[in-house]
Amino acid sequence: xxxxxxWQGVLGRPEGCPPAIADQPISTVVVDSRAVTPGAVFxxxxxxxxxxxxYIQDALDRGxxxxxxxxxxxxxxLAATFVAPDGSLTPAAGGADRYIFSTDDSLAALQRLxxxxxxxxxxxxxxxxxxxxxxTTKEIVANVLSQHYKTMRTPGNLNNEIGLPLTLLRxxxxxxxxxxxxxxxxVGEIARLCELAQPRIGVVTNVGPTHLERLGAIERIxxxxxxxxxxxxxADEGGxxxxxxxxxxxxxxxxxxxxxxxxYGLTENADFWADEVDSDGxxxxxxxxxxxxxxxxxxxxxxxxxxxxxxxxxxxxxxVDGLAWTEIIAxxxxxxxxxxxxxxxxxxxxxxxxxxxxASPESMLAALNLLEDINRQMTDKPHRPIAVLGDMLxxxxxEEKGHRLVGARAAQVVRGGKLITVGLLARMMAxxxxxxxxxxxxxxxxxxxxxxxxxxxxxxxxxDIILVKGSRSLGMESISDVLTRTKPNHGSKAV
Length: 495
Fold this sequence. Notes:
With about 500 residues, the protein is of the alpha/beta class. It has 16 helices and 22 strands.
């Protein structure tokens, strides 16, 4: 990317760009002044905690070539040349070689820039959305496509109106595919992300009550997720919607898209389907994959039966994008991607399953099922299951039902073990576990992570298998850190 690309992306035209600097290369585009390198573009965004406009001078001092700012920058005394929306320049003393694009909305300007840059790239975009499993699916899909194409993926979980544009701005002509995770909090947000990214292939994992508090009804969540398939190009232009046949709300999206529809699931009615599913605990999962007249027996290093759906999604993307089965299977077996669930040795010889990134009823139940599978596979000696479960947030009207559903399942899975809940809402899990027959002595309620750690330190044994999971804002990784005596990503197995 050159300075003229920034000029054209922000202002919508290349005219007026100073010729002397037009071909100056841009090193990176960032929203954190601490990440500025010489030749970077810094985007000053207002935020809930701080305002990026307060750090414009810091960005300039670190070598930023240009700044994209909102109206507030016009009142700041900065040594830079101001660029008005019409392209006119207002030089400031000592600032001729540095430029501040003065816009009405710096976020909108960032998005315009990203859309303009993406439009220059001959890359095929795969968009992934859903209530649960987006990041894991993104990683596995990218692993599969990387067997055949030069592939970029969303780093971490930069899946929103800021993170996705920043990811697009990392594209170069060398990339043939990019796999983008698309998150949302409201109706219309995924549609906007699709306007920027122009996906050709869209994958929807599922629809659950996550964000129900914001959207009010599960149907509204489905509507928001369906924006991805609605944005895909028609089938005769290469558009493909890959939908979960086992989720009725996702399956119904087939009627909303012009794209070719491909389904996946655990019944033979799906285009890509699996049977003979069996979890081998920490060793992975086994199943038979079917597509058309072909079938394959696979054993993959993915934990939990729910991971079969992830494998099916990735296989479907690979196949519709022209990969051979040998490439698809090699990609599924490549677990080098940064996935969230970690298994690590813990205090006193215990085993810790760290799944602390986030939580919903669906993902909680999947994690409990995994705990059950792992416990069942450890037949060399008796093991005691312990579930440390925290609040699930943003469930709205599903809040009580969701927590009690998880509590009832936890009572089944940790029979003979311990249940420790963290937070006020999670107390409903504890109440329900006792109500369905779990001994009260085996159930502990903790108000904070520190309280949960104190309980755990008093009862951990070498044979324990400990699951830690809760909503992201609870910061329950602090519990896993103490249990493993190290950071979760050191000496752990990513799955």
